[in-house]
Write a structure and sequence with these properties.
globular, FAD/NAD(P)-binding domain, Flavoprotein oxidoreductase, alpha/beta, 5-stranded parallel sheet, 12 helices, 464 residues, 3 domains, FAD/NAD-linked_Rdtase_dimer_sf, single chain, FAD/NAD-bd_sf, flavoprotein, oxidoreductase
Length: 464
């Protein structure tokens, strides 16, 4: 069957993807215009809508007791707001010239064409799963959706052995390693970088490395996985690199994601160097008046480097959705870009970064000074004060802040927000030294660690 135009003067907004960006866009568009003016049809190929992928490691690790706590809004709640959300329905083709999409029921196989006046592409990302022997064997998992998380938990419950190998040591790899330790597994992390946490410079990653080993996690750096070995039952039994084998009863891939843009590519929509859709400031797909895109399938402008970047994070996806929904609903909003802020943790070690790493600054041709300082989370004499390392990059000559990385215990991670605001405002490190931050001994030393780094960076820039 097919659906076509002629809807009594109503416009139809079609949304591909029922998670953060897609359903934020649908919800915001609905706030802007009622059902008598705007019909909203949304397609989601999975079992869940509006869920927190970021929470999956904490659910797997047991910090979040049940899956449903990660669902912000159920399909029924969306439908109660006059959004026609069709679950387990996959869009298989976008016909830009005909302003329609082909939808297929995942379980039934039934297909139909659905026309649109306005289209939102929020197809998200797909986990990178290397094309190698054994990558699809039972016991091998990725973690991108709630379905993935449930499959992993089921697998953990039925696995006799207690040896887990995590491939990759970025945010997901590190968080999954901790989750598996909580589940009572012996964990080995195989990482192709010099140190874990590639979003940090290696000197800061080394601090994370030490903390992971302190938890009993075996770190294998500078190692590329070549194949996964399986037993007679077909299940995974080991992870192999060029020169070693690591026994595994369970394997989790945490080597990042790529934008899910096969549909967009087939439709001839513009993609960037990282494979993500390219949009203007209003999140409209470049060159297409009535098509918007947001979330993990788009590239965003990095305000520090001035270049397009791929940054798949839920914070951006929700903001993209708000902007898209406002514009598709007849209002006006823009998304100016990002500075690259992210936080994570390994047990009680907090990890934070914003702006550019050394290699990012080199890549875009910026010359810079770096400083690294040791401080404490509270006044040194106040109970509970814990060590914190802050690394700061400042542009040579101008002193403009370029990036900050922080590794420490309680109170470390959210301090990066000071730097995120300073980067957005294009402040110099000298201007930062005068910031009027909140102070009392239970919260910080009289000179906050970020300001200590700014003072040291200022002195270094001046000395040049």
């Amino acid at each position: 069957m097919s659906m076509s135009g002629g809807r009594g003067g109503r416009e139809r907004l079609v949304v591909i993807g029922g998670d953060a960006a897609g359903m934020s866009a649908a919800s915001q568009a609905r706030r802007m215009r009622g059902p008598d003016e705007l019909e909203i049809v949304a397609f989601e190929r999975g079992h869940f809508s509006s869920f927190s992928a970021c929470g999956i490691p904490y659910w797997v690790g047991g910090d979040v007791p049940e899956r449903d706590r990660l669902i912000a809004r159920t399909p029924e709640e969306h439908r109660a707001r006059d959004i026609d959300l069709r679950m387990r329905t996959e869009v298989t083709e976008i016909d830009v010239a005909g302003a329609r999409v082909r939808a297929r029921g995942v379980d039934s196989g039934d297909e139909s064409w659905v026309s649109y006046d306005k289209l939102v592409i929020a197809t998200g990302a797909r986990p990178i799963r290397p094309d190698m022997p054994g990558a699809d064997a039972p016991g091998v998992h990725g973690v991108q959706t709630l379905d993935d998380g449930q499959a992993l938990l089921d697998s953990l419950a039925h696995t006799r052995g207690r040896r887990a190998v995590v491939v990759g040591a970025g945010y997901i790899g590190v968080e999954m390693a901790e989750a598996l330790i909580h589940r009572g597994f012996q964990v080995t992390v195989v990482n192709r970088g010099k140190e874990p946490m590639s979003p940090l410079d290696p000197d800061m990653g080394r601090l994370v490395h030490r903390a992971m080993e302190g938890l009993g996690i075996t770190m294998v750096n500078d190692a590329e996985v070549t194949k996964l070995l399986t037993g007679q039952d077909g299940r995974v039994r080991a992870v192999a690199t060029e020169d070693a084998e690591y026994p595994a009863d369970i394997v989790v891939f945490g080597i990042g994601v790529r934008p899910e843009t096969a549909l967009a590519r087939a439709a001839g929509l513009p993609l960037g160097a990282h494979g993500g859709l390219l949009t203007d400031l209003a999140m409209r797909v470049r060159g297409h008046e009535n098509i918007w895109a947001g979330g993990d399938c788009v590239e965003v402008l990095n305000l520090v480097s001035g270049q397009e970047q791929y940054v798949p994070l839920g914070t951006h996806a929700n903001k993209h959705g708000q902007v898209i929904g406002s514009n598709a609903g007849g209002g006006y909003a823009t998304f100016p870009g990002v500075v690259g802020t992210a936080v994570s943790k390994v047990c009680d070690l907090e990890i934070a970064r914003t702006g550019l790493r050394e290699k990012d600054a080199h890549r875009v041709g910026l010359q810079f000074e770096t400083v690294t300082i040791e401080s404490t989370s509270r006044a040194g004499y106040y109970p509970g004060a814990s060590p914190m390392t802050v690394k700061m990059l400042a542009e040579r000559r101008t002193g403009r802040l370029l990036g900050v990385q922080i590794v420490g215990r309680e109170g470390a991670a959210k301090r990066v927000d000071i730097a995120a605001v300073a980067l957005t405002a294009q402040m110099t490190v000298e201007q930062m030294t005068a910031l009027d931050l909140g102070y009392a001994p239970p919260f910080s030393p009289v000179w906050d660690p970020v300001l200590v780094a700014a003072r040291k960076a200022t002195a270094k820039v001046r000395a040049r």
